[in-house]
Amino acid sequence: MSYKSPILSVLDLAPIVRGGTAAQSLANSLSLAQHAEKLGYHRYWLAEHHNMPGIASSATSVVISHIAGGTSTIRVGSGGIMLPNHSPLVIAEQFGTLESLYPGRIDLGLGRAPGSDGATSRALRRDGASDGQDFQLRLSELQDYFKAPAEGDAPRAVRAIPGEGLNLPIWLLGSSGFSAQLAGQRGLPFAFASHFAPDYLMPAINLYRSSFRPSADLAAPYVMAGLNIIAADTEEEARRLATSQEQAFLNLIRGRTGQLNPPVSDMDELWNAAEKAIVRKQLGFAIVGTVETIRERLPVILEETGADELIVTSQIFDHQARLRSYELLAEAAFG
Fold first, then answer.
1. How far is Cα 97 from Cα 83, in angstroms, rounded to an integer?
2. How far apart are the first and last CA of the chain?
């Protein structure tokens, strides 16, 4: 099987570890972004989540500015902004400002999930729930705010300044077929959340590619797949570090949220057989191991998916171990 170095990016969930603070998390995010830039990663994305004690990136556009201001070449963006939570005008202004501050480096990834529980969604939105049709209307409105007015157009009643006329890449993100098909129909790049929904990856990618219509933004389909990778110098250490990620998924299926827990020696003391099976299935697209393990698995994943890019998240409790994990991944992929 032929193999070329993949395009790799970073999805930072900005974890607040047990006993830590949001300030420490955000400092760690900048440290990781600077490390990733030096190692050759292509982009660095942060996600919008609300009312979660273990995630520090709720004010996503503010954190993006923090990261972009502390780096110089790596692309920085949202993976993603949950558009139903916001006025399209506000997002156009925020990301127009980011693009004006850091030209040619900002990505706007959009999702239609709330990124929160029902009560928090109501507190954010005030105007009730959002459906798929509403998302498409919001997306169209947002895209219109970025368009430069053509000669002869009537003056716009509302303009996004900064934002208007800026060439800022818009991505659609998803874990189902809805966003895949919409991204294809709109001719936009598509990122699939296979780091937590691996079973739907190939159906979504196939739907996206079959639905794709070339646009002014994109001539051919472009797929990015999310991937959990935890690397260490030994297999045993990688598996130990991975128990923090497993605990996080276990808490999610139990309906709990909390800070990222330190690794444990034996997960069988924490989960039952059914929970173990669910977590392992959700993490079925993960790589845990050494450089050699990554070198073995990564080409297989790229061959199976045909993904143009992989965006990697590593839920690791110790910051130095997380830096080392991305270092080992770069060694496996680029070296």
1. 17
2. 18
Task: List the chain domain ranges.
Answer: 8-334
Task: Report whether the peptide linkage leading into residue 214 is cis, meaning its omega lies within 30 degrees of zero.
Answer: no
- On the question of a cis peptide bond just before residue 80, with omega within 30 degrees of 0, the verdict is yes
The tokens for 227 are 């991937």
52 vs 282: CA distance, rounded Å: 20
Give the orientation angle of helix 201-211 with respect to helix 291-305, to 10 degrees. 40
Question: How far, in Å, CA of 218 to CA of 170, rounded?
Answer: 10
Residue (of 195, 266, 256) closest to 224 by Cα position? 195
8-334 CATH, one of 2.40.50.140, 3.40.50.720, 3.20.20.30, 3.40.47.10? 3.20.20.30
Place of tokens 């998302």: 135
Amino acid code (one letter) for 324: R
């996503």: which residue's tokens? 60
Collapsing DSSP states into helix, strand and coil, what is residue 157? coil
Show the 3-state SS of 74-118.
Answer: CEEEEEEEEHHHCCHHHHHHHHHHHHHHCCCCEEEEEECCCCCCH
Extract the tokens encoding 158.
């509302």
Q: What is the pLDDT along the chain (335 residues), one digit of tens a residue?
A: 345 678 999 999 999 999 999 999 999 999 999 999 999 999 999 999 998 999 999 999 999 999 999 999 999 999 999 999 999 999 999 999 999 999 999 999 999 876 556 677 777 765 655 655 789 999 999 999 999 988 878 888 999 999 999 999 999 999 888 999 999 999 999 999 999 888 899 999 999 999 999 999 999 999 999 999 999 999 999 999 999 999 999 999 998 889 999 999 999 999 999 999 999 998 988 999 999 999 999 999 999 999 999 999 999 999 999 999 999 999 999 98
Q: Is the pTM of this model over 0.85?
A: yes
8 A C-beta contact, residue 219 and residue 192: no
